[in-house]
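Please predict the structure of the following assembly.
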Amino acid sequence: MSSKLNNEAVLSQLTNRFGNAILESSEPYGLLTVEIQSSSLLEVVQWIKDEPSLQVSFLTNIAGVHYPDTTGREFAVVYHLHSLVNNFRIRFKCFLPENALMIDSLTSIYSGANWMERETFDFYGIQFNGHPNLVRILNEDSMDYFPMRKQYHLEDETREDKDDRFFGR
Amino acid sequence: MSELNEYSKLNHLSNETIDGEISTLNLGPTHPATHGIFQNILKVDGEKILSSEQTVGYIHRAFEKLAERRPYNQITPITDRLNYCSSPINNMGWHMTVEKLIGAEVPKRVDYMRVIVMELARIADHLICNSVIGVDTGALTGFTYVFQEREKIYELYEEICGARLTTNVGRIGGFERDFSPTFHKKLKAFLKEFHKVFNEFDNLLSRNRIFMDRTIGAGPISAQRALDYSFTGPNLRAAGVDYDVRVMNPYASYEDFDFIVPVGTEGDTYDRFMVRQEEIRQSLKIIEQAYNNLPEGSYKADVPEFYLPPKEDVYNNMEALIYHFKIVMGETPIPVGEVYHSVEGGNGELGYYLISDGGRSPYRLQFRRPCFIYYQAYPEMITGQNISDAVLTLSSLNVIAGELDA
Amino acid sequence: MGKIEDVPTVNGEGFQLTVLDKVIGAARANSLWPLPFATSCCGIEYMATMGSNYDLARFGMERMSFSPRQADLLIVAGTISKKLAPVLKQVYEQMAEPKWVLSVGACASSGGIFDTYSVLQGIDRVIPVDVYVPGCPPRPEQIIDGIMKIQEMAKTESLRRRYSDEYKSLMSNYNIESDEQ
């Protein structure tokens, strides 16, 4: 099934409506990727769901990424959305600085965002404002660090039986 | 106590005769009815469930962090262990993601071979789910019939890759070897015999009065709520929405095949069971079409930086030796970029979000796991139902613990 | 049903003379009731072992008990994470003596390929294990081999083993309170 919309049309509709909130856009491997300001996330997602010509009303995925080397934009939250009616996929990215690691929660628009945001919080420590129950989901509650951040090792730091000499460290 | 007033009105009893108490029941992590390790703490009033609270993460194995350490062809064994009942689908999805990243074109024969293997895996996954729904209603016989058929599918896997369950099948760019003559013989025998055993299993349950009474109305969800919770796969199709990644974003030449996407109406357990039964039949149809029209050609694409060269070339040819060294040591240059690719897994849209920075292992690999996403709707589906319906709903959702926790 | 023909007996009219250890050993070995603690992929291979092709029921394991109070053999099949380890220990403590533990698969034996922050590197960090079955997942024939070794152990175990000092010190190493006096 081919898509009924194309990337340029959707991008121009977005820029006409939101102007300054759209920071950058690109099309890696054919998927329209738009970087938006984190403060306007709820507005954009709500508008793109309600707009009759777009109807992007299915939340596919929420992922977090850690870029420790870029100051001021250390964390990114990536949203994949899908319009089932028009067969159109779009990706939104919001970059967050490490000292202000919060963003609005999408649970008011999509109930499915609940656990996806909890998982992102569990791995990266990103706070989602307005989330009904933002606690750890996959790791133990007693864990005191956010394991997917790049500075932490894959293995448990408290192990005594793994000798670093044999692993080249 | 207002819930008790509702209940008593429904049953024409006066408040004075009911001495009610709301108790907490732990449908705990180790329980014979939960096929996998997840915990539900239920608040029940007699047998009726008022609310439930879930705890997951009991098999969190940190796949995403593990993937950041491993080169691209070593990630296939860990994708196996996501939905381990249908592991070839996960493997193929990963290979297709990397092929999309590097821009590789695979020959048509590889596509058709992939379709055959993926549909066999889908049959295996749905067989387990449906027979387990039978076991939870008390019908244990179907389970024993179905596992014998799964053994036949395991034998087919063993012919192509050597392993039964966690297959690690295929390579980036195709397959490691062509289908052997034994595979052709076994597949022909499977296609001939499976119909009969499956019809026997179907006759046990599909129009069985007791089974229908148990499952109709158990754990329903409406299409609107299902879309809100980002359901995909047979659970969404049972609620009435015909979203199938094979039709919407075809991959591996699925547009060449003629098959129906079955859709239910109520979204309850009976609909989920029937949607999976019909999908098994459709998968058989697809395998027959793919097998009868299997095109001639190579079983691999021409991607020497990712695909290990044959050993004769490695010992005689300088380039093959260098490629072999680079692949094994993980020194292959990968293009920088980000790609999202999804396949129709046994439970829905299984997505791979891959960010590559040119290094030997991914910078970020995130699995969009359908089980994790639709399991959050479980409390809403069982509120107001009985405990035995809750158990049936859980097994009909086909929650695989490996995919839930990753 | 087990064969007791290797138990030395003297047959007479209405009586049989034999050694108590051997009879009890044979009875225990041939009717072990397993508790399948199946968490992940090895659990599916365990289900295939229970199926009709590899049939574990002929070893006396027809009735799987999911309640630890009625089980003899704890079969741990699959990855055990650190979140699940206290649950596993509690299930083990709830079983009554004599009890055996079979660790099926690489993940249960040593953590397997998952050398990560959240996976317990082997269940023998929390409970004592009798037989390890390696594999990822092990073929049903391997699981049956492991079960036959447990049967050997059950058959030849001394009746006073669970009361011995060596066993008590093993339990205290794991901080498991043994309530045999």
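Chain C has one domain: 33-173. The two ends of chain C are 32 Å apart (CA to CA).
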